[in-house]
Structures are given as C-alpha cells and as structure tokens.
Amino acid sequence: MHRVIRDHLEQILAESQGEGDPQATSHLSQCAECRAEVEAMRAQSRMLRQLRTAAEPRPGFYARVMERIEAQGAVSIWTVFSNSPFARRIAAVSMALVLLAGIFLYTSANAPRQTAENPTVVFISGQLPEQDQPGAPDRDAVLVNLVTYREQ
Q1: Angle 55-58-64 from CA coordinates, rounded to 5°
Q2: Rounded to 5 degrees, what angle do the CA atoms 117, 123, 128 make?
Q3: Other C-beta atoms within 10 Å of 5: how many?
Q4: 60 lies in some domain
Q5: Which residue range is the domain that position 13 belongs to?
Q6: Which whole-number Å values give the CA distances from 138 to 115, 121, 132, in the listed order?
Q7: pLDDT in tens, 53-94
Q8: If we measure between CA atoms, which residue out of 46, 48, 36 comes closest to residue 16?
Q9: Would you say residue 57 lies in a domain?
Q10: pLDDT of residue 25
Q11: Which of 9, 26, 30, 81 could potentially form a cystine with 87 if both were Cys, beta carbons 3.0 to 4.6 Å apart?
Q12: Would you list the DSSP string of 35-66?
C-alpha cells in the first residue's frame, strides 16, 4: 500500500465510494494493488458489522451487576488482617513488639547515667592533684597519655 492511501485510509474506509481526497481517489483508480487492499478492508468491515447483534441484556442486569460489586466490598490491608486468624496473630505480636521497644527506649532515656571521673577535667583546671593523695593518678602516666592523645 502506498503512502497516499495510508495517509487517508480512515477517510477512504469511512466513505462508501472512496470519495474524498482527490489525490487518493485518482491513485486508487490507477493502482490495482492499493484498490485490492482497500476492497479487502471494506469487505472485512462489512463482515464485522454483520456480527453485531442488537440484543439487549435482560431486565435488571445492570442492577444485579452493581449488587455483586457492592457485595464484594473493597479489599484493603485492614480487611486482610481482620479476616485471617494468622494475620491477627501477626498484628498482635507486632503491636506487642512496638510496645516493648517503646518502653525500653523510654526507660533507657530516663535512666541516670553513671560515668567515671574524667582525668582530663583535672588538667583543664590547671592544677594537678598531689602525688600523695589517695586515688591520684601517676603524673608520668597521665603525661604519657596526654602526649599519645595529641599524636593521634
């Protein structure tokens, strides 16, 4: 099929005798190949029109369809959980897990923190504890720790 016919094919098939675009009409009169294809398409179109039936559905058909649609109801995640015993158990366990995690986070956030004395606080004040005091750190060990801390 040539481009002229392809461009105007819908118009040609919609018209009974192919009247419309003069260029397409003249091409159909000259080209036997395009004329045969268009005639085959028209024959198929006629056969498809004959297959149509004018039958109407029985009275109340649409009402019955709407009743069935409404009876099925909308499927959502909540209906799945409410209808299945296994899903209910999973939901209950999940809620218990969330509750326990919340309790743990709440109690751990409010718990008093126990921290050891920080030896760097002594150096910030500018005074080193005396060597003779009980529990005082060794000065050499503290200085070595301070030097190695600066190197890192």
Answers
A1: 135
A2: 95
A3: 21
A4: no
A5: 3-51
A6: 21, 15, 10
A7: 777 888 899 999 999 888 876 677 777 667 778 888 888 999
A8: 46
A9: no
A10: 82
A11: 81
A12: HHHHHHHHHHHHHHHHH---PPPPTTHHHHHH
